[in-house]
Amino acid sequence: MRFETTIAAFAAALADPSAPPPPRVLGRLAAADWRRFSVYRNNVAVGLVGALEARYPVARRIAGADVFRALAREFAHARKPRSPVMIAYGDDFPDFLAEAGAQPDLPYLADVARLENAWVEAYHAEDKVAATISDLAGLSDEALPEARAEFHPAARLLCFATPAASIWAACQGDAEPGPPERWRGEDALVTRPEADVSVTILPAGGYAFAARLYEGATLAEAAEELPNPDDFGTHLVGLVGAGAIASMIAGDMS
Prior knowledge:
The chain has about 250 residues and is mainly alpha-helical. The protein is about 45% helix and about 10% strand. It contains eleven helices and five strands. The strands form two sheets. Strands 2-3-4 form a three-stranded antiparallel beta sheet, sandwiched between helices. A two-stranded antiparallel ribbon has the order 1-5. The radius of gyration is 23 Å and the shape is elongated. The model has no long low-confidence stretch (mean pLDDT about 85).
């Protein structure tokens, strides 16, 4: 049997709790050992569930340990790691929660998980110096409209139909979190200034403005997304102050 075939059979047996050990997987007596293979298969599942628990602590707290582990086991059974680097495992867990309609009494669970995933991505993103207000001040009034923003590698923009950012923030302490003051969708910005991940709830229009900049639009073009285009300065200063911008690129003023 080819090595690739053996590995494929081994991986398939790991994914199916009812499957017998692969033919070429032998114990000390040169015979298939169901018990030893089952222990190994269980250890793999426990490791994957543990990786999800570490990546999504707030989602685990909200759902409860038992419910979360059941969801995590279902996910681990369906989706095995695509990389040996375990920090990448579970980045699609929020999509799994949304697609599965998991916990209909917790409609915000998938959104909270998306925020936690963005937090992890920001934490492990490439290092780069963020622009400062002083850098922004270096642009002349004439250059501002055509200027573009280069976003920091750690910056993540999120648009939620639920108050996921407020719920996530309320779960950061040890006290029992209370419900958000207002139940409405929220937009969030995740950044990593000074090596610390930060989550900011964006004001009205802030997501659309930032998203247009992220897509490469000029400041003048992005400002059109705001209820009052003249407020673009406040939103831009907010993005820079949060550490979301790596640099401002002056446009062609000809």
